[in-house]
Amino acid sequence: MKTEIETIAGETPGVAYQLTVHRLTGSDAGAPRTYIQAGLHADERPGVAALHYLIPMLEQAEAEGRLLGSITLVPHANPIGAAQHLFGDHMGRFSMGTRVNFNRDFPVPGKDGVRALDTATAPVFAERRLKSRLLELADDCPIVLDLHCDDESVQYLYVPEPLWPEMADLAACLDAEAALLWDSGSDCAFEEAVFEQMTARARESGGNLSGHCVTTVELRGQNDVDAGLARKDAEGLYRFLQGRGVVAADDSATPDLRADFVARQIRHVEMVEAPAGGTILFHVAPGERVQAGQMVAEIIVDPGCSGGAVAVTAPQAGYVLTRRIRRFVRMGDNLLKIIGDNQAVASRTGALED
Ligand SMILES: [Zn+2]
Q1: Which of 105, 217, 103 is nearest to 157 (CA)?
Q2: Per-10-residue mean pLDDT for the chain, 354 residues long?
Q3: HEC secondary structure over 60-77
Q4: Rounded distance from Cα 310 to ligand 1 centre (Å)
Q5: What separation in Å is there between the alpha carbon of 110 and the centre of ligand 1?
Q6: Which CATH architecture has domain 267-340?
Q7: Which residues make up the CATH 3.40.630.10 domain(s) of the chain?
Q8: Which residues form the Succinylglutamate desuccinylase/Aspartoacylase catalytic domain (predicted)?
Q9: Alpha carbon of 92 to ligand 1 centroid (Å)
Q10: Which CATH number applies to 2-260?
Q11: How far, in Å, is the centroid of ligand 1 from the Cα of 93?
């Protein structure tokens, strides 16, 4: 494995960021190339922990001649967000300089199939140069995994609809609980920018998207970071890479999806908002089924007073995917994501959240 420390120049004198890039070289030029990054939302750590265990496994495969496809790994994809603290709290989701979500506004190809990427010396903000560099590093890889997590959550994947069900192998290897299939953009998240580029290339070459995989993997919730889960995720990713022929395997058969796996189009997601501000008492947890009208949470507005708590009910029957990690909420904040049995909206363009 070769490691390079790249420098992303900051916007002011004396400031620079480091991007660590690991490269492993496969022995078979015909095997799929893979790109994996973690920590793009810098406050989401399960992916970083998983790579802590996956990287030595891949290094060993490379040393023993079992690595077929080349792999690029960026375990800390967002050194800018990693450095943002405000009064002791870490702020890793939005750039404090521009207010832009670190996983939005990636450059996507235009109608002509060409992307406007910023070079390392372009006179633009560091996060723009970082985004372009991450896309360059993922370029030409048919397998691209962006490791994230949600607030409190089961493990689930965002998947471009044309790649489903082929990508069910990844969900099965990870033992994931759900997949959200999107078909009309995600506010230019990294995944969308990569997928659009893959699609443009396939169109250009007259090929198809078979064998491609690009996803935002939500490795459960922000606090689901421990050695057991990280090892399990690393082993799942390794198994997936074996199944795709990136790493040689005696048995490349992939496991089955969980019997209760939920795969739905993203327009099934009910974003349940807080009807009042206050203290949340949840009555359901991620992974549970709910019925229409079932109380899923109470918000305590006036503690101890008659009528001092506001009940929140499920708008339809479905599956609780995520819930808010903090228990103090503003009116209008998202409380839960529920995958409805029926479509929640006629169509959904853009990301579920800011
Ligand atoms: Zn994220």
Answers
A1: 217
A2: 98 97 98 98 98 98 98 98 97 97 96 93 98 97 98 98 97 98 91 96 92 98 98 98 96 91 97 98 98 98 98 98 98 98 89 89
A3: HHHHCCCECCCEEEECCC
A4: 30
A5: 25
A6: Beta Barrel (2.40)
A7: 2-260
A8: 32-242
A9: 9
A10: 3.40.630.10
A11: 7
